[in-house]
Design goal:
hypothetical protein mp506/mpn330, domain 2; mainly alpha; two-stranded antiparallel ribbon; Cyclin A, domain 1; DUF3196 domain-containing protein; 3 domains; two-stranded parallel ribbon; globular
Length: about 300
């Protein structure tokens, strides 16, 4: 008998490819705690490729050996030193041994063809002491339109560095004004309507499609970065209970339709109780998420 608690969660090849991509990105951006957490989950699920499972097990054991502090960072209780403290210590040593390290990271921001390098640079710039960083990132963000994920990560970096005040940015062909201090540091820091939508999605998917929820979490995080500071973002902030159902249903259907090639609109409507009275809201939400999916899903190694 299998000892896997999530044996009923089947990872299809397309889903495995997505998780492989996410693991690669976590390792490249030194998010080792998240990688340990994801690997621990994946190894409790069922899939047919034993080679992949062996690779995941070996990677998990290596991470636990090389970064033992991250094992505790993924639990409910945290050590006295947080992940941010450990990263700050690590980068402080790097900066002391390489006087031009901050300049090298800032130079990486000027390479739009390398999204991963830009994210990696911003993750590190948040914790390095250097007089030119705040101004350089602010000017870089406001000079021209950046990729939505990079733009949002730039705002997070400034927020972590203690920068405050408004910035005027180009986003989706429009001008938006955001206050740096209002930028959520993490997904958990988003206003409650954003989290309520994901909670509703989890409620509807955890019984029949538990693996879909993790994919949805990653997608929703990216979607919030995609719309942050825009009219659709402000619209979600004002949602009532019906609006929560509409956005959760729209995300659910887009994932089923565009990624997993399964499910129907009628099934999703019935699941979330989307009636004719909510159809106009549904169409608006669906079009926005669909536009996001057209831009972002093509960047993932999912066929």
């Amino acid at each position: 008998m299998s000892e896997k608690p999530n044996e009923n969660v089947i990872l299809f090849p397309k889903t495995v490819e997505f998780y492989q991509f996410e693991l690669t990105r976590m390792l490249e951006t030194e998010r080792y705690g998240e990688a340990i957490q994801l690997l621990s989950f994946l190894l409790t699920c069922h899939h047919q490729d034993t080679r992949i499972e062996e690779e995941w097990q070996a990677l998990l054991e290596w991470l636990q050996t090389m970064f033992p502090e991250e094992i505790f960072a993924t639990g409910e209780e945290e050590d006295d030193l947080t992940e941010a403290d450990l990263l700050r210590q690590h980068l402080s040593i790097k900066a002391k041994t390489d006087s031009g390290y901050a300049e090298k990271l800032l130079a990486m921001l000027q390479q739009p063809q390398s999204l991963e390098n830009q994210l990696l640079a911003l993750d590190q710039l948040a914790f390095i002491d250097h007089p030119a960083i705040d101004t350089s990132i602010s000017e870089w963000l406001t000079a021209h339109e950046q990729h939505p994920l990079i733009q949002y990560k730039g705002l997070q970096t400034l927020k972590l560095r203690g920068v405050t005040g408004p910035l005027t940015l180009d986003k989706h062909g429009e001008k938006i004004v955001v206050d740096v201090e209002d930028t959520p540091k993490s997904f958990e820091d988003f206003p409650s309507p954003m989290n309520e939508i994901m909670e509703r999605f989890q409620e509807m998917s955890q019984i029949s499609q538990p693996a879909l929820f993790y994919y949805a979490q990653e997608t929703w995080n990216e979607f919030l970065a995609y719309i942050y500071g825009t009219a659709p973002y402000n619209q979600i902030l004002r949602q009532d209970r019906d609006g929560v159902d509409v956005w959760a249903a729209a995300l659910h259907f887009v994932l089923l339709d565009k990624v997993f090639n399964s499910g129907t609109k009628d099934e999703v409507f019935e699941l979330y109780g989307i009636t004719n009275d909510l159809m106009f809201q549904w169409e608006q939400s669906y079009r926005i998420i669909l536009q996001f999916a057209a831009e972002f899903f093509s960047q993932r190694p999912v066929k």
